[in-house]
Amino acid sequence: xxxxxxxxxxxxxxxxxxxxxxxxxxxxxxxxxxxxxxxxxxxxxxxxxxxxxxxxxxxxxxxxxxxxxxxxxxxxxxxxxxxxxxxxxxxxxxxxxxxxxxxxxxxxxxxxxxxxxxxxxxxxxxxxxxxxxxxxxxxxxxxxxxxxxxxxxxxxxxxxxxxxxxxxxxxxxxxxxxxxxxxxxxxxxxxxxxxxxxxxxxxxxxxxxxxxxxxxxxxxxxxxxxxxxxxxxxxxxxxxxxxxxxxxxxxxxxxxxxxxxxxxxxxxxxxxxxxxxxxxxxxxxxxxxxxxxxxxxxxxxxxxxxxxxxxxxxxxxxxxxxxxxxxxxxxxxxxxxxxxxxx
Length: 343
Prior knowledge:
The chain is an alpha/beta fold. Helices cover 42% and strands 18% of the residues.
């Protein structure tokens, strides 16, 4: 996508503004890492368009007879464009007359061919089995879909749409800034490579990031890892906390208006009091978290919705570092394939 004459233009996206205006609900279907990008899409699309958004694993979608019709937009996310469960979800949605938009990285693949429209992420070939750069590209593409919907429906003024687009445009430079200071994360990975498990906590957009961080550690390092919404800690997961257990926390901005920062700070104190080692990803300049972070990873300050594009990177590097310290090939994890073409 690009910005032209005061408007977002989505290349190859063949749905008209009128068709987008007719949408009254959105379903996002995907698998694995793409599913986590879809969870983030929900926050952005609902915020910008005020449309209800459901996010579902493609492997579960068609088996519960979801309520779809001509005014439903289904967004199908797949790096390869060949994911079997996502393809079947697309076919089910088409049978119900829903409009289907593919977010895909592979030109000419099956899923885009069967959809009404496609937004290519253009991230280039991803050789490693575990999705990393395509995850960030999917988040970006999903946000562009949300902005295009907001633009067509008039739920955001043109200058507001442009403001959001410019923030997306600034992300590559900020990603480079994070990568420039990533050595400390690689050292942390070596330190915790012998751990038996790692927990990940987040709130709001930090929750899908926690899920993705845990998935990467499972995929690459074959380590038990779980991501939790931090508000659920007392509903079971806190029983797992023990001495020296590493817990990685994705911290929201202290400027967040929903008091999420203070609530997550309280969660960190709870787990630290029970012996956990806290590894905290926080905004640069957030001094309130320092007393409770055994290890602090700082990222640039950005608006809430854009934080996942930065907070994900240390988690990817951490997973790769742990895997390498354990002697595993990060590009060819066992039992996994780049494209899952069977159900």
